[in-house]
Design goal:
Structural class: alpha/beta
Mean pLDDT: 92
CATH class: Alpha Beta
CATH architecture: Alpha-Beta Barrel
CATH topology: TIM Barrel
Order of helices and strands: EHEHEHEHEHEEEHEHE
Strand order of the largest sheet: 1-2-3-4-5-6-9-10
Number of domains: 1
Distance between the termini: 18 Å
Shape: globular
Number of helices: 7
Radius of gyration: 16 Å
Length: 206
């Protein structure tokens, strides 16, 4: 089973210094996980940070994740291809918003920058978005919210349910799909039974 940890430091601390400390503590835990329960992808999703601060955070997280070559965890930067390249990150996570760069465009930018071919994941919320992400050759698709969407511990959107997750996985195949949104240890098995290759979460992997 694949695992994608998504960062959201604003929900764990109020001031900038504490948020950075918490994120780096999380990175150390992820780097120590075994091959059985390890984190495959980390999506650095710190929308409140300016480019310079985001770059420095990404560099610090990469140093932890790659220490002694012990961790196979890949770091993806949310939407910022420039920061990803400057930091030496493994790739980029994209939204499905109109006008967003495509996975192939991200790969072209990396190649022109002399960087290895990146990992590119895409968030999708509808079957049309899944179809487009697959056609654009995304490496991974994050689909949801499956169970619920929360902001500041408040449910703001109901989940799409197992049937739509199953259809998304079938449509995306062979592109791996991560189930996202309200995923817990208790309902993970349902996601895998529906065809998901793994799970993506913020709270579950803290």
């Amino acid at each position: 089973m694949l695992r994608c940890a998504i960062t959201d430091s604003t929900s764990v601390a109020e001031d900038a210094a504490s948020r950075r400390t918490k994120l780096l503590e999380q990175a150390r835990r992820w780097a120590r996980r075994s091959a059985v329960d390890g984190i495959d992808l980390v999506q650095l999703r710190e929308k409140h940070l300016e480019a310079g601060d985001l770059l420095r955070l990404a560099e610090a997280m990469l140093q932890i994740l790659r220490a002694n070559g012990a961790s196979q965890t890949k770091l993806l930067i949310n939407s910022r291809v420039d920061v990803a390249i400057a930091a030496g990150a493994d790739g980029v996570h994209l939204t499905s918003r109109p006008g967003e760069l495509t996975p192939q465009q991200i790969r072209t930018v990396f190649v022109h920058a002399g960087r290895p071919v990146p990992v590119v994941s895409v968030s999708c919320h509808t079957l049309d978005e899944v179809k487009r992400a697959k056609e654009n050759h995304a490496d991974y698709i994050l689909f949801g919210p499956v169970f619920e969407k929360r902001i500041d511990n408040q449910v703001v959107k109901d989940g799409v349910g197992m049937d739509l997750l199953r259809r998304a996985c079938e449509l995306a195949r062979p592109t791996p799909v991560f189930a996202l949104g309200g995923v817990t240890q208790e309902n993970t098995a349902l996601c895998l039974q529906a065809g998901a290759a793994g799970i993506a979460a913020i709270r579950l992997f803290r």
